[in-house]
Batch of 2 targets.
Target 1
Amino acid sequence: MAGTKTKSIVLKTNIPGPKSAELMARRKAAVARGPFHGTPVFVDHAHGALIHDVDGNVLIDLASGIGVVNTGHTPEALVKAIKAQAEKLIHGSFNTTPYEGYVALCEKLNAKAPGKFAKKSFLANSGAEAVENSIKIARAFTGRPAVIAFEHAFHGRTFMAMTLTYKEKPYKTGFAPLNSDVYRAPFPYAYHDVSVETAQDGFAALLSMIGPDKIAAVIIEPVQGEGGFLPAPREFLDALRAHCTKHGIVLIADEIQSGFGRTGTLFASEQLGFEPDLILSAKGLGGGLPISAVTGRAEMMDAPIEGGIGGTFGGNPVAAASALAVLGLFEDGTLLKRATYLGLTVRKTLMDWKDRFPVIGDVRGLGPMLAFELVKNRSTKEAHPDAAKALVKFCYERGVVILTAGSHGNCVRLLFPLVITDEQLAEAFEVLESGLKTL
Ligand SMILES: Cc1ncc(COP(=O)(O)O)c(C=O)c1O
């Protein structure tokens, strides 16, 4: 493969190249085993949808650093905003000496989040931190302990977020005891015969088993990310909304992966007619800088007492400036339109692949947040995680970065930067398609 040159992909060495391999050896010696690498390639720099590695290879990015650089790598507007802010104030600590960027970002999020009610926001650093804080807010507001999360959910790696997460290995292995008062409800999964009715019945049974007056919150990803890009059907979300409203339970939408344009609207909830009480943003919000937010009903957001939520770095001024620039890039709707268009065309390709490649059992997602599930056998629908792993390797060796997903690791998810060009996408898909032919 070395020496191959196509329009965007440039392969000067085998992948991983010698410099990446050398860095990986240093990484193994110096860095804890825990952090995993989907693609064992060290990045030097990246622009738009292209990653330039330390060996001079250029790869097309269909992963966006796990759904973060929705607005592309290093867009000019972000770099400019980050530089300008860095020259003025890098850290103030909102808990010590506040600054305008934090407030301005909260104002924007309050205006953009779904729901025609008075809203307030709170900023933190990571998705998991937004999840943790949303549960604190719900408990402070309701005075109740229990939380319901769903099968196949992923909410992060800190203790409450990890407890809310579904998959045991690797996320919970060796980390017990987990938090108490967390319950699990079925998530509709048509491909594996979990219908909306089954999921609704399961939820209703859980509600009466726990007792609605003990439940502080229900947390749901409107489109599950790590779980395999499962969109929640509208009628299921409607039923949840009705239960939560009836019983005074705080309904939390975790849009950490599905938010910030990923599905063709700023929040996936907008397309699903969903009005959660609290909505969580991270990943795409900062366009690459670490920042997250909880946005929701003002009276709920004000439930924790002064000093009850906060942190040293939350809503850092440079990250807030970057997030404001991200919102600026979405402002005129062009990027969202492009995202919707990409969703339609990519879905067509994936459906065509499904017709041609029996290894693809299901294609699903919302807008351009799309995945396909790989199975050993279409009748038994047995998961084929080895095929997903092989496809990832096939792709990165040929200059395309993709990610797996799913509770059995047998889905391939597409999280390309929304600024990817038609040519780059076509080139990457040629590689993906030849990979599918080898399975
Ligand atoms: C839906 C969802 N919630 C929460 C998280 C946790 O975010 P972070 O890794 O920033 O803590 C993730 C990360 O993948 C996610 O996809």
Target 2
Amino acid sequence: MPELPEVEVIRRELEPLLIEKTFAAPVLHMPSTIAYPSAEEFVSDLAGQTVKSIARRGKYLLINLARGVLAVHLRMTGNLLYTEAAEAKGPKEDRYRRVSLPFSDGSALHFSDMRRFGRLWLVGNDHELQSIVLRRIGPDILNDLCCEDFLQLLDKREQSRLKALLLDQGFTAGMGNIYTDECLFRCKIHPLRQAKTLSRDEKENLYATIRDVLAEGIAYGGTTFRDYRNSSGARGDFQSMLSVYGRKDERCSCGTPIEKATVAGRGTYYCPRCQK
Ligand SMILES: [Zn+2]
């Protein structure tokens, strides 16, 4: 499942390719992919719009247009593929293609999604973006928070357990299952610990570690576990750097086998000896 680094990798790749391009009429292979507005309005409102910049908030990709914002959430298995020449020259027939977004110059952006949970929104302005798309989404963990802000947010959620808290996109946006497990391991924090049990040093270290791990994930092109691909179809490499995620029964550097448990409804990997 794409998390902040994977979406940021896509953002960085797409921005120079798409800037100042103008959308032609979208093709909706699966209209229910469009979360807002109606499929008909999406098609008529996007055609003719020019890309001005691409931003990101948590796991949302935000394509800023001359009028409004095209927001994309990849959810479980969504991916965006850019092709220079529209349809036929794409890398082999894609049977999971849900939406094709051609540009007036013949290039195109294709949204594919095996599991069909990914969504696109087209809103008219920032107010709609906030009220319709990002209503329950907290500040971006990489771009919107200094350490003091993060510590204040932690203090408001002192009863919460760290794994569940970091996954909560209303707390901060961007962390998912893989990067959360890696951060808690590096900080030697047990996933079930409550925020109020952390010392100030541990909180500051958690903030710094989250930013380090996300930056490494971006530098490695993201993590490819099952389906993630960047916008040119390449896999990420950060999976080779993972210390605990996906490594059940392998040995931690301390010699203890890594355990897997269900925490906050998610498969969670940790070292029972290192993480207290
Ligand atoms: Zn260990």
